[in-house]
Design goal:
Blueprint (H helix, E strand, L loop, with lengths): L1 H30 L2 H20 L5 H20 L1
Helix pairs in contact: 1-2, 2-3
Length: 79
């Protein structure tokens, strides 16, 4: 029980960090901050990859997130 509680807290922390980073990137997209997008995308991809390493996110789900976010950032930067 102690071990599962510790893992739950670690997973929750990692998932919160992941969701917060994605939320920050999407907020920059809606605000139209192109320079900020260029800086946030690599950081977001890094957080997604770390979530996969820690077992919080499946690798295919991570690939889907990275692909969609990158496509949206490129589309927003082209405007």
């Amino acid at each position: 029980m102690r071990q599962s509680e510790n893992r739950r807290q670690i997973n929750r922390s990692s998932r919160t960090r992941l969701r917060g980073q994605i939320r920050k990137l999407r907020a920059a997209m809606t605000a139209g901050k192109t320079q900020e997008l260029v800086e946030l995308l690599p950081a977001t991809v890094s957080v997604i990859d770390k979530a996969v390493q820690k077992g919080v996110l499946h690798k295919n789900a991570a690939a889907r997130h990275k692909s969609r976010l990158t496509a949206r950032v490129k589309q927003a930067a082209a405007k």
